[in-house]
Automatic annotation (TrEMBL):
The lineage of its organism: Bacteria, Pseudomonadati, Pseudomonadota, Alphaproteobacteria, Rhodobacterales. The chain crosses the membrane at residues 6-25, 32-49, 69-87, 138-158, 194-213, 233-254. This is Uncharacterized protein. It comes from the Bacteria. Keywords: Membrane, Transmembrane, Transmembrane helix.
Length: 272
């Protein structure tokens, strides 16, 4: 119960962090963020206190979810500090802004995801607003890429997810129904390829979708800090999470295939 409550608290802090740190946040916005943080904390508590989860995947296969949370927390914190530094600058915010500006410029080349996000900005956006969008996009995308690379290293070199304990398929993949759709290996590999492909394409497709939605006035206001921060986080973190899930599913498929191979070999060695 203590562990579940701690996780719920950490999730609530993550969601409420921009509203708590940014200056001049409207009271209505603060109330909505507080409600969302409470709902997310309640969902997390229920998922982790239950013996068998219903939504959270890879619950008992660390550090999958821990890496995603740390990456998400780092992205939220850094982007919030940069946004806060535009009105209340400090040495830390100046350093982060300078680093992010350099990273954004390096990643802002034709047809790159960062360039596409900069093009989503409103036509009347000032040069300072465009620079802020470029800075946040570059940092968020870099953090997501770094998280994916670290997870691949963990899978390849540290023998995830069986380095310390056996992998329980039913607990760690509660949304995967192995009784439908044919062979489980085929479905795992198919879902893995789909997740990786979608995660690769989303950073390019999402800006195009936002640009199309702007004609109907349905895009978030990228001039205000909170919509800008959460847009950048969704644009960078969701594709990274999909690719990590695809890599994890491919690893599980490889483990099942190896276990089948050993079982077949052992059956062939047994006398008739």
């Amino acid at each position: 119960m203590v562990a579940a409550a701690a996780r719920a608290f950490l999730v609530a802090i993550l969601i409420a962090l921009p509203a708590m740190m940014l200056p001049d946040v409207p009271s209505d916005s603060t109330q909505i963020v507080a409600l969302l943080a409470l709902l997310a904390a309640l969902l997390t508590f229920v998922e982790y206190i239950a013996e068998y989860p219903s939504l959270v995947e890879f619950r008992n296969a660390p550090p999958f979810n821990r890496m995603r949370y740390v990456a998400l927390l780092a992205t939220v914190l850094i982007l919030t500090l940069i946004a806060r530094g535009t009105t209340q600058p400090t040495a830390l915010t100046e350093a982060l802004s300078g680093l992010g500006y350099a990273i954004g410029l390096a990643m802002d080349f034709p047809f790159s995801p960062v360039r596409l996000m900069v093009l989503v900005a409103p036509r009347d956006a000032s040069p300072e607003a465009l620079a802020l969008i470029r800075t946040m996009a570059g940092l968020a995308y870099l953090i997501s890429l770094t998280t994916m690379l670290i997870f691949v290293v963990v899978v390849r070199l540290l023998d995830w997810p069986i380095q310390k304990r056996a992998f329980n398929f039913w607990v760690n993949l509660p949304l995967f129904d192995p009784t439908t759709g044919g062979d489980i290996l085929y479905r795992l590999k198919r879902d893995s390829h789909f997740n990786v492909a979608l995660g690769f394409l989303l950073p390019f497709l999402a800006p195009a979708g936002l640009k199309m939605a702007s004609s109907w006035g349905a895009t978030p206001n990228l001039i205000e800090f909170q919509p800008l921060i959460w847009t950048m986080i969704a644009w960078s973190f969701l594709p990274a999470s999909l690719i990590m899930r695809g890599v994890a599913l491919m690893r599980i498929a490889a483990l099942i295939e190896e276990k089948r191979r050993r079982a077949y070999a052992q059956a062939d060695l047994q006398p008739a």
